[in-house]
């Protein structure tokens, strides 16, 4: 593999389509890519009981263990394997077991605050922000939280109004300014195809790490549906 790895950050609001974009652009590259959900770095809350964990603001930056993420990302970038924590949404806490993750040519960090931390941003080669209207995102979130995460509708609505929406406005939306590219409507096919091509080239070692980002951005901005954040 090539050291350092090529690191992509994918941020955006809840339900924007971050996971979907990340999955689609890495679909055909096999094991050359590691996808890291930021959720894995939620603080260990084993010292709290379930009722207390239910009250935590999971959309505030303080909910994450940034030191551990910086340390593990550095290790991966420099070619060392890490034992990554895993997250269980049903208990609002980390699982007991960690999973060994080997370094790969491409690393994708994906999560609501993936572009929040300056030091982590400095480690990234390509910063993306997935932008989708809030009404679409909340509808997706209701469906996901009720169906997949075992939450009740009233709880999802309360959480959205009390923490998810205000934290989005205070921290997540403003992190968009760190993006090299903004992807409207989430997994739009033009953006996905071009990014997939880029990931495949990096995974195959076809580009140096001193790739011409500006050329790539220019190509993207020439396509309908993809904006450069520097416009
Ligand atoms: N472009 C899209 N069109 C339709 N549905 C989408 C699109 N992108 C994502 N979804 C759906 O929306 C839900 C949330 O998407 P996901 O990628 O998990 O968002 P995020 O990771 O940003 O929270 C999923 O059910 C997913 O299938
Ligand atoms: N115990 C938890 C931890 C996080 N959340 C919510 O998850 C959202 C982030 O995940 P996305 O896939 O939607 O980006 C975030 O908005 C947290 O509110 C939770 O509900 N419970």
TrEMBL record:
Q: What is its main location?
A: cytoplasm
Record bears the keyword Protein biosynthesis:
no
**Protein's UniProt name:** Uridine kinase
Concerning Gene3D superfamilies, the annotation shows: P-loop containing nucleotide triphosphate hydrolases
Question: Which cellular compartments is it found in?
Answer: Cytoplasm
Primary gene name:
udk
**Boundaries of each Phosphoribulokinase/uridine kinase domain copy?**
7-187
Q: In which pathway does it act?
A: Pyrimidine metabolism; UMP biosynthesis via salvage pathway; UMP from uridine: step 1/1; Pyrimidine metabolism; CTP biosynthesis via salvage pathway; CTP from cytidine: step 1/3
Give the family from UniProt. Answer: Belongs to the uridine kinase family.
Which keywords are on file for this protein?
A: ATP-binding, Cytoplasm, Kinase, Nucleotide-binding, Transferase
Q: Can you name the source organism?
A: Halogranum rubrum
